[in-house]
Amino acid sequence: GLVEVQEEVKEEGVGHVAMRNLFSLETSSMETITVEKKSRKRHIRESADRLELSKKVSTRAEFRKKQNSDNLTHPPEFIVRPRGQTVWEGKTVKLHCTVSGWPKPRIAWYKNNVVIDEKAHPDKYTAESNYNMHSLEIKSCDFLDTAQYRVSALNIKGESSSVATVVIKSMFFSSQIMYLHLFYEEVELEGVPVAPLDVRCHDANKDYVVVTWKQPAVEGSSSILGYFIDRCEVGHHHWAQCNDTPVKYARFPVTGLIEGRSYTFRVRAINRAGVSRPSRASDPVTAIDPHDRARHRAGPSAPFTGMIKFTEEDATVGVVPGEPTDLVVTEATKNYVVLAWSPPAQRGHEGVVYLVEKCVAGSECWQRANTGMPVKSPRFALFDLAEGKSYSFRVRCCNSAGMSEASSATGDITVGDMLDLPAAPGPAVATRNTDTSVVVSWGASKDVKHLVGYYINYTVAGSDVWTPANNKPVKGTRFVCHGLNTGESCVFRVKAVNAAGYSHSSLESEAVVVKAGIAIPGVPSGVHLMEAARDYMVLAWREPVVTGGADIRGYFVDYRTVKGGVGGQWHELNPKAVTCTSYKAENLKENLFYQFQVRAINMAGVSEASLPSAALECKEWTIAKPGAPHDLHVLEVRDSSLVLLWEPPTFDGRTPVNGFYVDIKQAVAGEDWKGVHEKATKLKYMKVNGLIAGRSYVFRVRAQNLAGVGKTSAVLGPVLALTMPGTHEIILDVDDDGVISMIFECSEMAEGSEFIWSKNYKTLTDTSRLTIVTEGGKSRAIFNAPSLEDLGIFSCEVTNTVGVSASYTLTEAGESLSHFATQMAMELLEKGRVRFWTQVEKFTTGCHVDYVFNDAIVENGEKYQMNFDKNSGIIEMFMDSLAVTDEGTFTFNLVDGKAKGSTSLVLIGEGKATPHLVKSTEHGIVLYSLITYHMEDLQVGWLHKEAKIAHSDRVQCGVTGEQLWLKVNEPTEKDKGKYTINICDGKDGVKRFCDLSGQGEEPTHTHTHTHTHREMYRNKLIEEGDRARVVGGLPDVVTIQEGKSLNLTGNVWGDPAPEVTWMKNDRELVSDERYALKFEHGKFASITIAAVTTTDSGKYALLVKNKYGTEAGEFTVSVYIPEEEKKKE
């Protein structure tokens, strides 16, 4: 039973004290009592003096202690104790501790009280000591390493030790795992709950306290049925169980405590598998009246000074106390009901006890609830109530003088849980964070009361074993789960918990791979002006150095006005992100100054803003030269090459941009810029060769127009010339059905990575030519109907990777699409016999050849003999002799499933001279002649219409091996006519002719070799009288003063009458108030611009088209301002 100790209260009156003191004076003349009144100020000063004196004495004692060397020594003391650990079998455990002491203590490690000899077992144990820090490493742990490890520290002043428990879990015998309970010498079976957490005491009173705790993260193999609460009096080691039946709530009122004594509490959880280990003990709490506790916290009273306080007789002795007030039910569960009330205002000094009464609803019979013990605290918990029934309660108080009246009764209270379980949290969302952690977020539970927090569990995808991610509940709705295995795919779920228990689990997250995640990108840099006009400015910037592990999706531009050097408020320019590193800021005010800043965005979020640009004035530029190219970036970085891409300047200058120059230098100090090429390129990309593996390079690009070369772009780099491990190239493949495709593989696919296919470095948008099929890390681009339209450079880039890209060039149809090892060739055999032949290097068994002469299929017979050797891939056609009627085009059409290819050869005239050859390329035409051998003093000259051809960017000539060639890029009508090649060795000479108008002037034995169909020659080389053409009326350059009116008329021809379109800077013009466009009588096309401005400068074109072809008449318009021209003069 409970022991109750009560002390007698003795009261003394004034007369009694006076008589006692008088008797003392008479019997002991040696004892003197001095009664002295002191002011509060003097009392405080004396207390301060005593405190100062105490400090001086303590300081002097410490100093004397240091002077004596014997006092410097002290026994070992553990500053940091080793901590117990639980790990999987095969892992390594390391125990750490920090020990102080002088002399320096000796350290020894024990396993189950047996000393560990690490030198005898170096493969198992490693012990280290550095200064005062000591460690024991246990390698390749197995189940036998489960033990109690003790570290002992010893010196001449004494010995100290500390214990840590190591538990090794077996992965192969998980159904039979047992954990050794070393402290209690008992075995804990698997499946029981984990120990509860954070046991605390609240609302302590004379005989009552409320104990709370947090539910464990792991319930075990079944749901938790309830909890047992144990108490232990401070100074004792016996734990007594407070409740006979498990309580479901994580809150329990403990009654029956002895006033003035201190207690600690612990909690155990129970499920169907058994009882958990006990929680950590709570902090001690004393059963004491809250008012007395407050007085104790105020600190000790002033020391005795010989003063005696006299009080009057207490008038409340022998008074019956009043009734308690404010009776309420503070807690109600199916296990217990807690009542609380306020003590009576009048109760005397001897103290009171309380009697609690209950009454079943609907009756008038009141029964005592605390018959076994009186209640000293104004709190009481009732446990013997029937669940589902309703009760009312009241309280009385009593002392030695009598019992009070009953308090006001509570309303009817139904015994049951007043606190509901929390609702399930919102769906869990998992995102990558690091190589060993994942960020989990979820929606908060709705309408939850007294939420304790959330527990997060995870499992490897495909498994049903859930592991807790946090040991203590978290309050927020976001948690970083650490300690995960890199590369594993994990699924997460969340459940909420309050005092009533656990909620249902949230919806599971999608599986996420544990690897370094993405972050918001770094800030862009180098915001600068590229073009300015009266009401707009074009800006450019450099992309962030740090992309955050994901591709940059776009940029946001902000602006503010600047007046008197003071910037205004920032405003957003573009609500929708722009994908390039330039932006046209419109609707600005002329002559005002603006500042701009840029923010980048990727799939993780928006970056911080860049540094603001300089204050830029919105004023129209009149510079003649073009601005700087922008948006430089590289693809296909290899050991010796890379592909550089850029965007043209937004400001062309007075005339359109007609080319670009690329500069390069090594990224080391002292290096000078060098041009990659001598002549300007019109393309917006260039493959840079000749790099040295392992070196870094920087690049820049300049644009030019008729006025000269403009500003340089921002420098790109440094770029390291190095082929990354695992790099793949695009492979051209033909399957057994003859389907042609290009294959690209990537071994570094990241989450969200995509294959982006391009042609000539422009993203493919037309799906009629190619079908893209992507499976995992492989993408296949399948040609739907291979033809000459598919010639070009095909490239593929993988997003969310470090520059994974490659390209494949389809040059000529016969070379790439049909896998011809050689092109059609002609051989003159004995007796005038002729052989036409070629070789195919890859084909299927179903491949066949059509032999065509002048668009008519020829059969095997007397004149033609054909052969296709499928073992060697050689295709042959023989003729006994050549006649005038054999002038024309010979073609081998190869059909291999869906793959098609052809190779052709044209014969014109007869003779025995060296053949003269013509080839069509993607940039124009090439004329060449084959010679037996070439000497250095051989003189070669090319003529067009009997006039010597001048070398230029468009027309070039040279010698390659045994081939003399002339290249004509972008041929026009002016390039038609007879071409002559003069070959002279100083003594003899020879001439060869080729008429590109289709009318030969002198008979020659000329065979023409091309990689295209005969129809391509008809379109490019033979004049068609009905094709749409621009026959005159347009100048090459128009220079006009600002404010004047411009009117131009072009004469066009074509049958049927052509369609007419006017273009400016490759954009179609529409007739409106500014541009008046007319087409009259099917022959005259005119354009009128009233009051031209400098914005009308640019490259214009009259485009005509009918069913036989298309042609463009181009001209340049340059608008100047007279005042500026005078200033220049």
UniProtKB/TrEMBL annotation:
InterPro entries: FN3_dom, FN3_sf, Ig-like_dom, Ig-like_dom_sf, Ig-like_fold, Ig_I-set, Ig_sub, Ig_sub2. GO terms for molecular function: kinase binding; structural molecule activity. It comes from the Eukaryota. SMART domains: FN3, IG, IGc2. Residues 76-167, 718-811, 1040-1118 form the Ig-like domain. Keywords: Cytoplasm, Immunoglobulin domain, Muscle protein, Repeat, Thick filament. One of its GO terms (biological process) is sarcomere organization. Residues 278-298 are annotated as: Disordered. It is found in: Cytoplasm. Its main location: cytoplasm. The keyword Cytoplasm applies. GO terms for cellular component: M band; myosin filament. This is Myomesin 1a (skelemin). Residues 195-290, 323-418, 424-516, 523-621, 628-726 form the Fibronectin type-III domain. PROSITE patterns: FN3, IG_LIKE. It holds the Pfam family I-set.
